[in-house]
Write a structure and sequence with these properties.
The protein is elongated and about 85 Å long. A hairpin with a 5-residue loop joins strand 10 and strand 11. By secondary structure, it is of the alpha+beta class. A 7-stranded mixed β-sheet has the order 3-4-5-2-1-10-11. A two-stranded antiparallel ribbon has the order 6-9. The protein has 20 helices and 13 strands.
């Protein structure tokens, strides 16, 4: 098969391929970028594989960086862009079902492609637009099928993360998992416990924000893979509830909303602790926890100005989107109105500060000062006090006189 029109991302990188070929080596676009080009999907990263060894690649280009040279990857800086050029390679026996004990560089494209996870990711494209398909990946693309390259058992024993990648690709591509591949995923799901949580999080996170995330979760449930992921053991009912409780057309706006929805369906009492087990950042934990809290507030009553002030307009909209997808009555307009009605959006917007209270009223730093500033902030947010120095001074005098 020949690609008649090269995507612009490939066209821009063609000089790299041609320069490698002029030096006497082979070079191809490989992996997900080729798959996405054939599916007419957006291309995010252009990966280039070559028969030139890393040191040989470095002699071809004047500006390079050793980003992963032990694995055969050299970063080439050319024409204002950077490209990762990776040598064809094979991998030795894997240790801990995660990483190869040794990587060997080879001159054969086929040897390189046979170590990849799924056939639709084992396609290559030359500089003339010719697709190289050694493992019937084109047929699998046409039939929207996800199938392991070679022996599915071997692929998942080599790297169990490929199981999570399979769920993610099912969710992002809307593909069905081929039977033998699915059976191997199911029988090897227990190996996910040996994979670093950070790597599993990346794949699960991409799954949740994919257009067909329900398909990914359903495959995860059918494989029983969730049993080996942090906090999901014995949570089949809650996961099924999550896939069924939202309208069919609904997709998550961002990953904060997706993980908040997961927490809500799991009825997690301590979202921060749950997300710590996934080794997420403090910022991520804080945002998702706030979303879960705000969702609970909104289930009890309409939003108030204090809610928008404390949690922000963006999180309130995300909560309302979740409610709307579940068929609850929503009021998006109210969120905007409440936000506009706020006299301040941050405590730093207050017309006075702690130094002012110390100088004007002789207050001393400590709990009393902090308590007074909190009272001022609350009164302004609720509309009981104008954000004006004179009015605030009067308010403080009255409070101190009590």
């Amino acid at each position: 098969m020949k690609l008649m029109t090269m995507p612009s991302e490939f066209q821009k990188a063609l000089p790299i391929l041609k320069k490698i070929k002029e030096a006497g080596y082979e070079a191809y676009f490989v992996g997900g970028s080729v798959r996405d080009a054939l599916l007419e999907r957006p291309i995010h990263d252009v990966d280039i594989a070559t028969s030139s060894y890393p040191e040989e690649t470095k002699t071809i280009f004047s500006r390079t960086v050793d980003v992963g040279i032990e694995h055969g990857t050299v970063l080439v800086l050319e024409n204002g862009d950077d490209y990762e050029i990776t040598t064809f390679r094979t991998e030795d026996v894997y240790v801990d079902y995660r990483r190869p004990s040794q990587v060997s560089f080879v001159r054969s494209l086929e040897e390189d492609l046979k170590r990849r996870d799924f056939t639709v990711n084992a396609l290559a494209l030359d500089d003339n637009g010719q697709v190289i398909d050694k493992f019937t990946g084109l047929k699998d693309l046409e039939q929207k099928r996800l199938r392991a390259v070679g022996s599915a058992q071997e692929r998942f024993e080599e790297d169990a993360l490929r199981i999570m990648r399979g769920f993610r690709f099912a969710a992002s591509l809307d593909f069905e998992i081929e039977e033998a591949t699915f059976d191997a995923m199911k029988s090897h799901s227990f190996l996910l416990e040996k994979i670093s949580v950070e790597r599993s999080f990346i794949e699960f996170d991409k799954l949740l924000t994919a257009p067909h995330w329900r398909k990914g979760i359903s495959a995860m449930i059918a494989c029983q893979a969730y049993q080996y992921l942090p906090g999901l053991k014995n949570q089949e009912v809650a996961l099924k509830q999550m896939t069924g409780s939202l309208s069919n057309a609904f997709t998550f706006t961002d990953n904060h909303q997706a993980w908040a929805c997961l927490m809500i369906n799991l009825e997690v009492g301590n979202p921060k602790q749950f997300l710590k087990a996934w080794k997420t950042s403090n910022d991520f934990q804080h945002c998702v926890t706030n979303l879960v809290t705000l969702y609970a507030i909104r289930q009890e009553r309409p939003f108030q100005k204090s809610d928008i002030y404390r949690y922000g307009e963006k999180l309130a909209v995300l909560v309302e989107e979740l409610r709307q997808a579940q068929g609850f009555e929503v009021d998006m307009t109210r969120i905007g109105q409440l936000n506009q009605a706020l006299a301040i959006h941050d405590k730093h917007d207050i017309a006075i500060n702690g130094s002012h209270l110390i100088q004007t009223f002789g207050m001393t730093p400590g709990p009393q000062l902090g308590h007074m500033l909190a009272k001022i902030e609350s009164a302004i947010v609720e509309g009981r006090l104008d954000n004006d120095p004179v009015m605030i001074n009067t308010f403080v005098r009255e409070e101190l006189a009590k």
